[in-house]
Amino acid sequence: MRAEALSQVGLGRVGHSPQRVGGRTRVTGEQRYVGDIHLADELQVKLVTIPAARARIVAIDAAAAQAVPGVRLVFTPADLPQPVPRFGPQFADRPVLAVGETKYHGEPVAAVAAETVEAAEEAVRLVQVHYEELPALVTIGAALDPAAPLVQDPSSRPGDPLAHTNVLREHRYGWGDLDAQAAELVVDHRYRFPMVTHFAIEPHAFLAAPDGSGIVVWSTIQHPYWLQRMLAKLLGLPLAKVRVIAPDPGGGFGGKQHTKYEPLLAFMALRVGRPVRLVLSLEESFQAARRAAAEVQVRTGVCRDGTLVFQEIAADYLIGAYADIADRVVGKGSYIACGPYRLPAVRIVARAILSHTVPSTAFRGFGTPQVIWAVESNIDEVARRLGLDPLELRLKNVARKGEVFIPGDTPADGDWAESLRKAAEAIGWGTPRAPGRGRGIALGIKLGPTTGLSYATVRLLADGSVIVSAGTSDMGQGARTVFAQIAADELGAPLDWVTVVMGDTAVVPYDQQTSASRSTVLMGSAVLRACRDVQAQLRAMAARLYEIDEAAVEVTRGIVRLPQRELPISVVLSEGLGPLGGELIGTGEARKEPVPGHPLGGTAAFYDFNCTAAEVEVDEDTGDVTILRYVSVSDVGTAINPLQVHAQDAGAAIMGLGHTLMEQYIFDEAGRIRNLGAIDYRIPTSMDLPRAFETLLVENGDGPGPYGAKGISEGALLPVAPAIAAAIRDGTGVAIRELPLTPERVWRALRERDAAETASDVQGVPLAEGFPMAARHGKPSRRRQHGQG
Amino acid sequence: MHRFVYERPEALADAVELFARHGAAARPLAGGTDLIIGLRDGSARPAVVVDLKRIAELPPTIEEQGSWLRISATVVMSDLLADARIRHEFPALAEAAAAVGSVQIRNRATVAGNICNASPAADTAPPLLVYGAVVVAVSDAGTRRIPLTDFFVRSGVTTLRSDEFVTAIELPRPSAPLGAVHLRRTRRRGHDLASVTLSCAIDRDGVTRLAYGSVGPRPILVVDESGRLADRGASDTVKEAILDRLFSAASPSPRSMRASPEYRLAMLRVLGRRAVRVALVRLDGGVQDG
To answer: What angle do CA B99, B102, B106 make, to 5 degrees?
Structure first.
């Protein structure tokens, strides 16, 4: 084989979009999710809950349930070690089962294990829970009322000055002197973001089985190693005796990052000495994970020419009854609340406020969508008040590449103005638009991981095929494919000769977590380094075989280059391994070290940046919003797999349209979720997509990941709401500051506008028409049309 | 799921006998798109489920009987959509059937079941009302023909007796073409339960029949015989006043989370105005999207 032919085997995969690894089995239903796994002798578990949010548990009578044929265990808090173990990724505040008081609608008070699901369901119905319903806090206002009951017992927060409030923690960031800034205009508004849920198609599912002196747990978890640590601690077992098997989840979006019912299942399995299995319903998933609601007050100070001089943000996040990872969400999300702008003075105060609701957790964007919605909407307001083009205002203030925009943190790592211009150009910014239509533009920025640790091993087998072991969870984002592409390229194997092993703590080396769009950058780098380790071994092998100096051998992308000739890796490998065969084992590690004293524990590994523009039409009679055109532009560094990048951005945009237009939890007065399930909690369908839908990429190879890649898939969700709201504003003149923008909410805003116009009989703020567009043609970009086109 | 006896009679007489014996403890099963959900979530706990799909006398057919079309109890929404007579003579019914659920749901859900479930939001109720449908019910006391206007009581409750079940819905075929349309309001464009439904049929004499649902405990039929609603020369003010009067029986629940009463009432008026406009265009033979 000549080198040229070889290069076609090895090269060209990174930057192209081969068929997704595991994609076929995922869409044909062959893939085995946790819910598809059955163990011999397993018992089926169902949770016992009560139709109340907050209630004092008086007594649990299990007699009738115990009598149901097939029931093997009715498990109550009394069956757990005392005091009942508590756990959580940030605070060990969540009991394995509710102790004394339920704190949110859906919190389990007991659980049943039976030979069949039917028997378990019947028994659950017969468990008599005597309880006394108590008033529940489900809004920020109610939770902050000085007379409000405390969600968490102050005695569980010793030494905490906020222990006698429902504020779990307060986060303060800032720089510069706000008072010293001479703003010529200050725009001050409050924005509301609803409580929403992840709605992964695969429900959360768990199995636990005793295993000799240890335990094996199957879970839909995104962070298997974190779960392993948590279980080891709760059960008093060494890590090596806790095996977590985490098959590829069917959608995670953050909702599967942290431990939920695995401890309960583990205690039950150890109690009955048999495997136990629990698959949540969609309704139970709603009660297991959600995004924090938020109210964000934004004061933006600006000069007449559009130069931003300060921002002051007060962000209240409504988290749940237990912290889960929510306080970190609040702290990290609000940290970048001022966006990517050059600002002389900033003050940010964010509070994580406890309530009697489902514990909020990580959710695509990690606390940033809430503040981006507020800040970007306020920036739009600033532009309109000054009579400036919202695009130009942003271009004027957005940090240039290499510029520090948060003191002490990573400087701007992309040409963000290029994303803005590209989005504006694609939507036809500044060109005439039909009456009744409006255009909006907004940007979004989020920090990538602030710390991280990923290990990978890459085994080059005797025939040249490759096994990559990587502890990332591929929940649909395509990590398997990206790692396979990297290994295939580096080691010259066809893609279908690469196997990627994931999701088993007994087999695959440690990975900190799958979150913050980190896996391409961190695990991808670990895989790349493991491949380079194998290449180094090949160099040594070639030097030995051909009796030349190791420094004279070069191994790149599947080819061993000797001074006089080039050989495919497979030839060198088979000669070098000799008659016994064997393999080369490479290891790779990628770290993002903590930074002592940094408020988040570390700086941003990269920024996930997106600019979104939309054109909408509003039905003045009904409030219906039709998105005619939608453009999403992400700064991705390098697209290792462009199709997957486009798909992630399209998915993020559609998910963002959910909280923008229709999604929200609705509670009754007692704190029960009224719209539990798919019928009254609406998510966008294919029919709700924009009429024309386009994703574009900016690729300048300026990321810290393999080949210059950055992490992606959260950025495209961030600016959806402010872009759509700005477009509605542009088309109708109404500014709506509360999500979702349901037809009824838009209709009400239109009626209020009409009433105000009638009352004052004067024109409101004139709508800016036909902004001059600063069009500049950038490099040719990757472009993809979605949907109805 | 709770335990029940499943019966699958093959003769109508056997089904009649089962309902005579079990009364309210028996529930008929046709498409199952409401019943199965009820069985699963425990809101329906019948002792006996009587599957109607194998009854020889109830094939899933739409038959002509004189000047009537007889829609058997086992006819599903997709059958309606596939039937040229329904599409041409009862377009508002076809539009309503097309709005029910998703393709999978429409392949299972029956028209009769949609009516018997008596949801105020039932999509096919308003068109069946404006077209003058009659419900055919059977029991061991014989067959009853119940005008649809006398059928609905409130959500989930009809005037069917506990020993009766529906075998067909009959529609009088219009002697002259009508201008008709079905409109609905939902929270999203994809399949959704309606927060307001409205059908309108205008005949050559200018009589306008409007039926609306999801704005009170049951769908309601109202008629403007004055001809002014259908009068192309009448002013908007006049038409608005007539619509206000016709919609005076609407009483949306303040407890609903799908839309506020204020919004539903406003949308009922919007749909009313738009439906009259579309129906008039169609009456003239024009093509107009609903």
So the answer is: 75
